[in-house]
């Protein structure tokens, strides 16, 4: 089926002689029209059983009138949704107003992203790339827009590590997996935490990919070793360390500290599991488990910080995924109870030396996985979940 967009009248329409009005998006219709020469054409797979064309919106950032985000992912989703009889477009929070959203969509005929005006979508997928971009007035107004139109919103916001820890620590099924964690507030609290645990991590609550992380160790003689992904610092006393990092204890730094748990290693390098979880529209599903191992430094296993990718078979057994599944499902249920619908997230989990696992953190809006099989499963499931949510919302609207 061909769906056309009249550039001058700013409307979508079709030219199928056998059809009249086709339900489109949340509460719009595609009308039959002979149209105009000044129109973009979009090809979607028609399905005689499907009586409507779902529309999925991907919200990203826009800086100086240029959209920012993972356009490889966006275009892949658009292609997959088109093969399932739907359409998909990209927009920013300040593009939404009234009953219309200004946005862009890739057009295969002209081989570029083109501007169109879209009706209210069935589902919105949050891929705003930074926590800071979710803090402005435009995003606040956009959230009200979503509420006003009752649009299913796939991923409400970036996670705050401290807030997530508090939520998960209330769950009896998860609390034993969590390392001792506290906010960095003042020198006294930090000193007490370090003296009690001897080896701790300090992390920004909103950072990802190992940015800003420190591994701090208090040796028996009082020497403090502070490691980042770029350097190692040595302080002869705690007071000297506190003086050098006094900015941590002034103002709203949003830092947390966690006990460093001894974890299993491979060839003397620690490794952990990066676990991708998606919601199917009915329940949380484990999409795949990647493994990252430290290499150039031992602070973090993130690849941009020098970590390496290894096969799951090198460090796991056939039982590993079965042991991980109930943990990540519990994470999803607890987060959904606290934040609303959670479409996808990733979990950083590592096997302890003494057995069992330690759950380091849960991240919203996972980055692209390097493992192609995991990424393919992810994109397949994303599209199925979007369409499932669209169908569920249609049923709700008819009640």
Give the radius of gyration.
24 Å
By CATH, the architecture of the largest domain is named 3-Layer(aba) Sandwich
The total domain count is 3
Estimate what percentage of residues fall within beta strands.
25-35%
What overall geometry do the principal axes of the alpha carbons give?
elongated
The biggest beta sheet reads: 6 strands, antiparallel
**Neighbour order of strands in the largest sheet:** 15-20-16-17-18-19
The number of helices is 7
**Helix amount, in percent?**
25-40%
Any key phrases for this structure?
D-amino Acid Aminotransferase, Chain A, domain 1; 25% helix; 399 residues; single chain; elongated; 3 domains; alpha+beta; 26 strands; 6-stranded antiparallel beta sheet; Rossmann fold
Provide the fold topology.
Blueprint: E1 2-6, E2 11-14, E3 22-24, E4 28-32, E5 39-43, E6 55-59, E7 61-63, E8 66-68, H1 71-83, E9 87-91, E10 96-97, E11 100-107, E12 112-118, E13 123-126, H2 137-149, E14 153-154, H3 161-169, E15 181-183, H4 187-197, E16 199-204, E17 214-218, E18 224-227, E19 232-235, H5 238-244, E20 255-259, E21 265-266, E22 269-279, E23 284-293, E24 308-310, H6 320-339, E25 344-351, E26 357-364, H7 372-398
Parallel strand pairs: 2-4, 6-9, 6-13, 13-14
Antiparallel strand pairs: 1-2, 1-5, 3-4, 7-8, 10-11, 11-12, 15-20, 16-17, 16-20, 17-18, 18-19, 21-22, 22-23, 22-25, 23-24, 25-26
Helix pairs in contact: 1-7
């Amino acid at each position: 089926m061909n769906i056309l967009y009249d550039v001058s009248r700013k409307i979508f329409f079709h030219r199928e002689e056998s059809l009249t009005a086709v339900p489109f998006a949340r509460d719009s219709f595609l009308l039959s029209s002979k149209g105009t020469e000044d129109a973009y054409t979009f090809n979607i797979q028609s399905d005689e059983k499907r009586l409507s064309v779902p529309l999925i919106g991907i919200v990203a950032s826009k800086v100086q009138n240029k959209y920012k985000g993972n356009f490889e992912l966006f275009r892949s989703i658009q292609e997959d949704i088109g093969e399932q009889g739907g359409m998909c477009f990209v927009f920013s929070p300040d593009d939404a107003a009234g009953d219309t959203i200004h946005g862009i969509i890739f057009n295969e005929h002209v081989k570029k992203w083109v501007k169109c005006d879209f009706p209210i979508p069935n589902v919105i997928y949050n891929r705003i790339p930074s926590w800071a971009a979710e803090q402005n007035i435009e995003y606040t107004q956009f959230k009200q827009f979503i509420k006003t139109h009752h649009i299913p919103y796939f991923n409400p916001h970036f996670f705050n590590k401290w807030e997530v820890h508090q939520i998960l620590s209330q769950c009896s099924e998860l609390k034993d997996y969590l390392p001792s964690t506290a906010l960095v507030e003042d020198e006294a609290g930090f000193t007490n935490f370090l003296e009690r645990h001897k080896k701790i991590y300090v992390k920004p609550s909103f950072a990802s990919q190992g940015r800003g992380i420190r591994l701090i160790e208090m040796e028996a003689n009082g020497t403090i070793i502070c490691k980042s992904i770029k350097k190692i610092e040595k302080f002869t006393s705690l007071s000297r360390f506190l003086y050098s990092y006094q900015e941590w204890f002034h103002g709203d730094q949003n830092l947390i500290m966690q006990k460093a748990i001894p974890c299993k290693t491979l060839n003397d390098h620690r490794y952990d599991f990066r676990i991708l979880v998606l919601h199917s529209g009915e329940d949380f599903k484990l999409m795949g488990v990647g493994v990252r191992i430290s290499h150039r430094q031992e602070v973090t296993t993130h690849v941009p910080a020098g970590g390496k990718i290894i096969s799951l078979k090198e460090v796991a057994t056939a039982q590993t995924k079965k042991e991980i599944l109930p943990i990540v499902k519990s994470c999803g249920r607890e987060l959904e109870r606290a934040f609303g619908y959670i479409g996808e997230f990733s979990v950083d989990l590592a096997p302890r030396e003494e057995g069992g696992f330690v759950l380091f953190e849960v991240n919203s809006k996972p980055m692209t996985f390097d493992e192609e099989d995991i990424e393919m499963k992810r994109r397949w499931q994303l599209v199925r979940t979007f369409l499932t949510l669209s169908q569920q919302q249609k049923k709700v609207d008819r009640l």
